[in-house]
Design goal:
Pfam families: Aminotran_3. The chain has about 450 residues and is an alpha/beta fold. Helix content is about 35%, strand content about 15%. A hairpin with a 2-residue loop joins strand 13 and strand 14.
Length: about 450
């Protein structure tokens, strides 16, 4: 693919709304191709992608099996109004619901939409309806659930709400356990327990503003969680945290809504990241990698008593393109493909190999203050030379240099695509293809070493 980059950027500056994108580098990068773990610029330079469209393309760019399924569906039944049924909608819902019942012992139903934020909106309707109109939610500091009005109300960043008026129903935000930055003198588990205990204190009496002991009712309907924080910096909580939190919620009739939009579909080595923490969700929201980025399909699973047709009747929500046949065919193929083998083991082994390499890299660069992760959801926190003070400026240089496409690997030009997250925007959040090879991980580590060395010198 050839194009005039200068003219395209000039036209984008004049004709495109900047409200629907984020320009992380100046000038913005324009890519012309992709395959496997790589993006390609107009000159054909490979860029090893370690963020894969924010974890939407978990199974590699141009995955042949999934592309073939999309073409097959395109030729058979590409379009149908959502008031009618088609086989793969039903089959995909059955697959997800039966998997959930097997794991958690609870029957439930699956509800589709388009895009993660839209599925969050639907979950808010499910929760409000099930709790007789309660509109207040708990959520975490550092949590991200989308940028629609409803999703913004439970996303902790004020900057997403600042220009859009008063959000009277915005969540009450609770601290998320951040092991690398925990208080001195505490183990990670003690730190997690302390947060749970402080949250439980809210229910001790009526004067802590959330609980009526006379009626045994909470003013808040649900707690929205990401089992591993995404935009917040791929923060992995201590293993005891969610068990303690869920007990408090269950004791007081507060629902747990699990946001698996970024961490779902095997990113952590299990289909859902919440499976790693020993708790059962009441509602689970998914999107992104369901279709490997080939179709904007999202959805939610909810317990039967929250979503059966008697309590959540037809028309409770609607989207023209929800459960479209291209998306559901792809989603069903993703589920089949990843259940034909021990896919989770593959992800966990690749993740352990990558994490070990990052730990070796950390020993050579004191500016890498922390590395951690689960499966192939990995993090590297970039700091000053003290190994703790956040260093956003250094990471910004790394991102810019990676996108210049002037790194070298085995005598060839390379680029590196990184994603930035974290409370201080100093964390590399690694979400490589789940199909990434050992040789590609080795390449990633060489390029990262090269990149941080260059950034420190510049």
């Amino acid at each position: 693919m050839t194009f005039n980059t200068e003219q395209l950027l000039a036209d984008e500056a004049q004709y495109c709304s900047f409200g629907d994108t984020v320009h992380y580098v100046n000038p913005p990068k324009i890519f012309s191709g992709c395959e496997g773990s790589y993006m390609y610029d107009q000159e054909g330079t490979p860029y090893l992608d370690l963020q894969m469209w924010y974890s939407a393309v978990n199974f590699g760019y141009k995955n042949k099996r999934l592309e073939d399924k999309m073409i097959e569906q395109l030729r058979a039944l590409p379009q149908v109004a959502s008031q009618y049924l088609h086989p793969t909608k039903i089959e995909l819902a059955k697959f997800i619901a039966q998997d959930a019942e097997k794991k958690w012992g609870m029957p439930g139903r699956v509800h589709f939409n388009v895009g993660g934020a839209q599925a969050i909106e639907d979950s808010l309707k499910v929760v409000r309806n099930a709790t007789h109109g309660k509109s207040l939610m708990f959520a975490f500091e550092g949590g991200y659930h989308g940028r629609t009005l409803g999703a913004s109300s439970i996303t902790s960043s004020y900057r997403y709400r600042r220009r859009f008026g008063h959000f009277s129903d915005r969540a009450q935000f609770i601290p998320f356990p951040y092991p690398f930055r925990r208080p001195k003198g505490m183990t990670s588990e003690e730190y997690a327990d302390s947060i749970v205990q402080e949250f439980a204190r809210k229910f001790e009496n009526e004067y802590h503003a959330v609980w009526d002991p006379k009626t045994q009712q909470c003013e808040y309907a649900a707690f929205y969680i990401e089992p591993i924080q995404g935009t917040g910096g791929y923060v992995v909580p201590p293993p005891n945290f969610f068990r303690g939190l869920k007990k408090v919620l269950d004791d007081h009739g507060v629902l747990m809504v699990v946001d698996e939009i970024q961490m779902g579909f095997w990113r952590t080595g299990t289909l859902w990241s919440v499976e790693n923490f020993g708790v059962k969700p009441d509602v689970l929201v998914f999107a992104k990698a369901l279709t490997n980025g080939l179709n904007a399909l999202s959805g939610l699973w909810a317990r039967e008593e929250l979503i059966n047709p008697t309590v959540f009747p037809p028309g409770s929500t609607h989207s023209t393109f929800a459960s479209n046949p291209l998306g559901t065919a792809l989603g069903l193929e993703v589920m089949k493909m990843t259940h034909e083998m021990d896919f989770g083991r593959q992800v966990r082994e690749s993740g352990a190999y990558f994490l070990d390499g990052l730990q070796q890299l950390q020993k050579r660069h004191p500016e890498i203050g922390d590395v951690d992760g689960m499966g192939l959801a990995l993090r590297a926190e970039i700091c000053t030379a003290d190994g703790f003070t956040p260093n956003k400026a250094l990471l910004d240089k790394m991102v810019d240099l990676g996108l210049e496409g002037k790194l070298e690997y085995q005598g060839q030009k390379r680029g590196l695509v990184l994603d930035v997250g974290g409370y201080y925007k100093n964390v590399i959040t690694f979400a490589p293809s789940l199909m990434i090879s050992r040789s590609e991980i080795d390449e990633a580590l060489v390029l990262l070493d090269q990149l941080i060395t260059l950034a420190k010198r510049s």
